[in-house]
Amino acid sequence: MSEEQEIQTYIHPLDQLFLLNRELAEIINDIDEPVIVVGGQAIAYWNARFQDYMPNDENSIRAGQSTDIDYIARLQDIETIVNKWGAIVAIATNHPPPQLALSTLRDSCGKIKEHDGAKFLNIDDYLQDRVERANIVDFIDAPRGFDLREFRDRGKLLLTTTEFDLSLVYEDFGLSDKLRILTPISCIKSRLSNLFGGIKEPRLEVDRIKLLRVIVSIYFIELLSSGEKERYIKKQLDYFAEVVGSTEGAKLNALYSVDLRDVFEYVATDLNLFNGKYIEKQYPYVRSHFDHTYEVALNRN
To answer: In terms of domains, do 153 and 22 share one?
Structure first.
């Protein structure tokens, strides 16, 4: 099969995400609460958005990709969403949170969802075994490392997420407050929780966090260059400080030699935030807290 034919057979998972979100945007006023992209596709989105600056070694490429698609959504909105996609869904009545429902991107007759003749496949199954299985969309109430309040409280929602930018692919679509994605900082927080929560592939999680170190740096540069309000940037910086100075952040350094402090230092110092006021007044105290927490973790592990 030629490369051209291969491309026509299936849709890349990140392209699947953009297509699904384009359909979501068309019915966004029919949805009660924000729908939020989480999981590996959130990393894939940021990796693609900043692709000109991203490393291209094998581990980084693998870390920046994901197959299935995960959303935070309210139970009452899921049926509306899935009906728009023309897919089937199983509500997780017998499963504990965080899972709410599982949608398979095929119709009730078994026909896999398509776009321009290409299918929404699980590409892992297809590329490995040439088996055509519909991709999966998982609806959850919160990713690992978060609780419900961080997405239901308006202030925390604006801190942990940002609008999903469909215009990166579809210029005629703008931003919507109800279609959101985890920020890179939230992605790190979630991956740290995965890493120390007994997941199966710790090496992949470490590689994802390494990739997110680069992404977070560019994310702050983008915030500054976009003219974002100083108050919002300060909240993002404080949020990042919480993640860097967390027990999990310190354990990451102690066990895997991946240090988040240097990323924070670059953001806080080299970008000259707030005309140097942060470096002069707050950074010494923040750095002291980081160093103490990291030293404790080194001694324990």
So the answer is: yes
User: Is there a single domain that holds both residue 71 and residue 125?
Assistant: yes
Domain limits for position 123:
1-182
Position 97 scores a pLDDT of 64
Do 203 and 248 fall within a single domain? yes
Q: Do residues 88 and 211 both lie within one domain?
A: no
**DSSP-derived secondary structure for 78-89:** HHHHHHHHT-EE
Whether 46 and 101 share a structural domain: yes
* CB-based contact 110:133 (threshold 8 Å): no
Q: Is 4 helix (H, G, I), strand (E, B) or coil?
A: helix
Among the residues of 130-201, which ranges form H helices? 149-152, 154-160, 184-195
pLDDT averaged per 10 residues, the chain (length 301): 54 97 97 97 97 91 94 95 96 77 95 95 93 96 91 95 96 94 98 89 95 97 89 94 98 98 92 77 93 96 78
Residues 159 and 256 both lie in one domain: no
What is the number of structural domains in the chain?
2
Residue 198: per-residue pLDDT:
79
Six token digits for residue 70: 């995960």
pLDDT value of residue 96: 62
C-alpha–C-alpha distance, residues 129 and 210, integer Å:
30
